[in-house]
Structures are given as C-alpha cells and as structure tokens.
C-alpha cells in the first residue's frame, strides 16, 4: 500500500507527491519474476511515473493517452504496423538500432553506422555479377547511376574479398517491387554482389527518390500535433556481410536530399551520405551519375555472438 | 540528422550512445507546436529513450513491445478499455489521480486522500435519507453494516452541513447493479446522503467483498509476467462534495482485507482504511457490523478551479 500522510507534508525534496509510490509498484513484482523482465519493467515503471510527475499529467490528458494507445492497436492490420510507425516517429526504432549495433575497436575505430532495416528487405534477392544492373524496369524519370566502392576492414584498411553487398531500393514512385506489380518485376532494384579480391563491388542502380509515409491513422495524428512532415529522405538500403566480420545494415542517403535533417524516422547518420556526381565517361550511355561508397566492417572478434543478418522484417511483416 | 563519429569515440561520460540523438528527435517538433504538447511529448521522448538506453533494449525485446502495444488496442471493445487496465496495473491511473488531487493547507493539513474513480460511478444515483439502507437486494452472504461518520473541515475540525456523501459498491458477487440485472435492481448499493447540521451522515450498506479483474487479454499477460495476482481489495466508493470545498473521490477498504498491500490497481492509501466492528445493539436486528468513517474536506479557496465532480468514467465508458 502506498503511504499517505495525514495532516503533515512528507518533506520529500524533489517532488510534492508520495516518494514511495513508484517503488511500491515496482516491488509488487513477484520474487519469481525473470530477472530480465524485472529489469525492463522496473525501468519502464520508473520512467513512466517520472514522466507523469514531470509534466504533472492531468486526468484529461491521461485519458487522451489511454485512447491513443487503444487507437494504435485498432489501426494495426496486415502491412500496417501502427506501433512500429509511432516508434519510428519518436526515434525509438533508430535508437534501439544504435543500442544493438554500436561497436568500436579498442582504439575507438567504428565500422559503418547501422541504421534501421525497414520492412522491405527480402531473403530471396538473387546474386548478380559485379557490373550488372539492378534496374530491370527503367522508369521514365529514373537517373541511372554507376554505384561502386570497396568494403574494407576498419582496422587494417584492407579490402575484404567475398563480402556480400546486398542492396534494395524503391523506384521513383516510392514503391518497392512487391508492392508495385504493375510497374516492377520481382527483384527489380534488388541485388546481391560479392566483392572481388580487392573488396570491390559495382553495379548500376537508380539515384533514389524520397517518399512520404502513409498520412492516415494515429501515427499521422502524432506527426500533425508535432508539426512534422511525413517524409523520408531518399535512400538505398544495404546489408553487408562476411563470416569473419560483424554485418552492417544501413540506409545510404544522397547528400543533397532536402529531408536529411528532418527524416520522419530519425534514421540519418553523417557517415551514411552519398555524393552523386554527373558522369559523361560511363560505358553505358544511359548512365548519367557516378556514386562511390566505401563500407567499413569490424572483425567478428569484437562481437562473437553477432547474428549474420538483421532480419526482424521477417518477424512482424511490413509496416 | 544525428551525429555519428567516424573512427573515434565521442567521449560522452554517461552513455556510450550518441549523446545528441534524443535532443535531435525532440527538436524535430515545429516551433508552432502548442506549448503543452511540446512539454508532454518532449518529456515522453526523453523518458522513453532513457528507458531504452538504461536497459539496453534488444531488437527482439523492442518488437515484443511493439506487438504488445498493438495487442492492447486490439483487445479494446465496449466495456473493456485495455490500455486503461494496463495503466492500472502499472500504477499510472493511481499516480495521475494523486498528481491531480494532492492538496494541503498552508500548514500542511491534508484532506482525505483521493484515489481512482473507477468506471462504475453513476450520475443518476438517487438521494436517500440518513438512516436509510442502500441494500435493495440482500445477498445471502451479505453482512449488513451501519455505516456512519462526520464530514469535517480539515482546518477547523467543524462538521460541514449539506455536504453530499455519494457512495456505491459491488455486491458480494463482485458485480455492480448495472452489470448484474438478474440479482440487483437499479441503484442497489448506491445512494447519495446529505450531511445534517453537524456534518453527520449514516446509512446501512454491505461490508464490501474483494474481487478479481478480468484475467484474459494483454493486461492479464502483463500480470502473469510480473507474478502478480488480479485482485482488488474490497472497497466502498465515495464521492463527497460541497460547493465551498474541494470534492474528494476515494475508495474505502476494510482494514482486514488480504489484498491491501498488493492491490492490482495500486490504489490503497493509509487514511482510507475502515474498521468494521461487530455490533449487537443496532436497532435493525439484521445488522451485525458497525463502521465509522470521517471525511476531511479542504476549502475551495485552496483550489478555486477544482471541478465539483471527477467524472472521467463518463468520458470513456467502462473498462
């Protein structure tokens, strides 16, 4: 039971509210509660209580929150994971990604930053040859790009042979192949490439196009309240793996994109920017742009338990 | 865009994660965001991020949380407000109630503690005469009680005439009148009483019976994970009002109830306990118990904007 003083203030320095209430709730957990459950729920209870006290949440505001949480689940359906969207808007998916993938060598050398996987990775993407094109269906407004680089060991700087550079991107209409069967054949704008003896990969793709997330439902209501737009910067997804290294999953963004600073999913990091340069020398006359991006991988010895792939997209379906 | 260092640690003392990320997300809010929205959402974002960092939430755990939030809304239906139930279990409804009703005189004198309203208050409860019984349908296992007391000014100690003492309680089967039409007529175990010239009220009611909340759905899953039972201690609801005083809404609990310390809704406070004493002297031979409870009210001058009634039960329907 929470303590209540009768006729005298409790003298708590920090808060005028019962200083024992939060610990009372935490301590309702059974001694048999699994340690990780206890750790997570204790922290959640403490932070939620501190939030209520910090803003002195009114009952009307609390009821708005209760109704909002109910509405999130009410909007859930196949290919629409509303709680996931809300997490993206609040930066939670991006933060959890950082928490799980932040890693550095003893000297503080960091591999290419991880960022959110998104729901559109496919385990069935075919391998292609270096120099091939992933553009199976060229849109009229597409800008064909020669995309190339080296996958290096972050400590030695040496190229890593036989790394897998898996990439996927939306077409210029903002849609991925599986959601756009009228315009795109399966595996359009997707490909896996194996790095050569010097760690090099290369292919043709499109300069990516920015798109907005769906602007209906509770997640969009949240954006409106915050005065935020629904746009993601244009991006190319990559997942780079090698058995001897910790894999990197990231999104790469053109450095001239207007939404870099205000990405609705809060998933842009400085080392993930791309510089698309005009080219007139490419052997393919349709190709007008050149883009080089080098990836840094860190030895698996720094995280022996790292999974090869980040595949939560498969667990929950699309959003 | 969140900053990412390339090849050197950022030197943040407290966290190994990007020390600028949370403020980046907060600052995505537009300058036009309403100040209260900004205050609430900034605090929510900071606390949710701190929670994720404090427990180093894994991606699998985060996805469990995403699915759980979706499931809460999926369980919502008429007379079942799942997000509200989860808030009760986490102590959030009780805390918000304290935040909104904590009040004291300049000398630190406090009125009777507020506690959660619950969903079963009725605006249609009839006035009855002091000395009447609210027991319209006597259950076989009921214990008739002479319930009486004085409503006093917390500063002067004087009885307050013409205060309204509104009470409601479940029957011995744990059900309120509206959900138990086979056994209970409308307004059974409900009544409003006006205090007399000395501030006294009195009526016959039942000694209340403890009951469990529904043990299905996501809220019950949460209880199971925490190793907690679903029981509320027995209680009588009261709502005491007077135009010159700040109203008090509370639940009163028998001091011998087994669930006082572990109330599933975390809503017990020390000054809300009742002492039921055996009696053989009552004028009504069926009456076996006597219970006295005195209420302390605080002058409205300490909270001139206080609403007369706490009626959020009407806003959202039952839970």
Automatic annotation (TrEMBL), chains A, B:
A GO term for molecular function: catechol 1,2-dioxygenase activity
Annotated Gene3D superfamilies: Aromatic compound dioxygenase (2.60.130.10)
GO BP, one annotated term: catechol-containing compound metabolic process
Co-factor requirement: Fe(3+)
Keyword rRNA-binding in record: no
InterPro entries: Catechol_dOase_N (IPR007535), Intradiol_dOase_C (IPR000627), Intradiol_dOase_core (IPR015889), Intradiol_RC_Dioxygenase (IPR050770)
Keyword Ion transport: no
Domain Catechol dioxygenase N-terminal: 35-106
Keywords in alphabetical order: Dioxygenase, Iron, Metal-binding, Oxidoreductase
Ranges of residues in domain Intradiol ring-cleavage dioxygenases: 118-297
Family: Belongs to the intradiol ring-cleavage dioxygenase family.
Protein name, UniProt field: Dioxygenase
